[in-house]
Amino acid sequence: MSPGKSLSKLILSDDLREYLEKIPDLDLNLLLESYERPIPEGLRVNTLKSSEDFVVERLEEKGFKLRKIPWAKHGYIAEGGDLGKTIEHMLGLIYLQGPVSMAPVEALDPKPGETVLDLCAAPGSKSTQIAQRLKGEGVVVANDISYERVKALSSNLQRFGVLNSIITLADGRRYHRFARELFDKVLIDAPCSSLGIISKNWGIARNWSAKIPERLSKMQQRLILSGFDCLKPGGILVYSTCTLTVEENELVVNYLLENREDAVIEPLELPGLKFRRGVVEYMGLRFRDDLEKTARIMPYDNWAEGFYIAKIAKRR
Ligand SMILES: C[S@@+](CC[C@H](N)C(=O)[O-])C[C@H]1O[C@@H](n2cnc3c(N)ncnc32)[C@H](O)[C@@H]1O
Fold first, then answer.
1. What does pTM read for this prediction?
2. Angle at 108 between CA 106 and CA 110, to 5 degrees
3. Nearest C-alpha to atom 13 of ligand 1 is from which residue?
4. 56 with 178, same domain?
5. Which residues' Cβ are closer than 6 Å to ligand 1?
6. What averages of pLDDT result for each successive group of 10 residues across the chain (316 residues)?
7. Domain coverage including residue 73
């Protein structure tokens, strides 16, 4: 056993271990191993500002080794230095973003001309990604509840050169009250317990309590209903989290299906990304069979972040 591995076993509280052991289709040893490994550095080339080849060549000349991410347009895994200190980063020619974190917007697949809502947007990695896909046509409305985080969102959209964005500071749980059926697409990258990114922040494991997913699940259920109500008929919603708990993932999407008859789960196409089917049975609960079409991504599936992604259409 590596010294790192024993470290995680020491730090993981009994409560968290017991909790993780109950999650179906989860290999605890592999999960602990993944928590010891740093998440690979990902970047997205900003094609709003420059050509992809130009930026890739510049970074390679500086000694970075870049590997294309198969599931993310313009996405690369980079090795060989601190990208945060490069002029390319400062000028907004690249956006630093974890490789799996790029997958929800790929699932949403925004197209030029569309009206897209990013309900929990700060600090803006996915809003800038949406804007990139809109190619300057249409609009991305980037909302967040936190004033402090909206400042970072605003500066990131500016640095990235996004002109067709509107920033709002509002509680996403109430957004449908003024934006009902306005959007072609909605992304809800929900606040969550972050069990998929513990290797970035061990504090998440240290401060764990089973009350956290329970509390967050209630908020996420309200966010998903509100976001869904903001969709035009025929629109698409993507719900994502960077956590592994069923309460914050399948249970939330199941809640939407139970409360909105026009919500239909769509299959996901994310080439090269390893994921497993969504859970349909958990602790005596039975969810809709369709939940199997959602994606549960363990950190050890791709040796990167753990995520959950569901794609939902609103029937016309
Ligand atoms: C996972 S982070 C979003 C990350 C962002 N999508 C990105 O890719 O950069 C969740 C965000 O939800 C925001 N949030 C929490 N509660 C909210 C609410 N009720 N309405 C809107 N945003 C909320 C938090 O301030 C936080 O910025």
1. 0.97
2. 90
3. 120
4. no
5. 119-126, 143-146, 149, 171-173, 189, 191
6. 48 89 95 94 98 98 98 98 96 98 98 99 98 98 98 98 98 98 99 96 90 98 98 98 98 98 98 98 97 98 98 97
7. 41-97
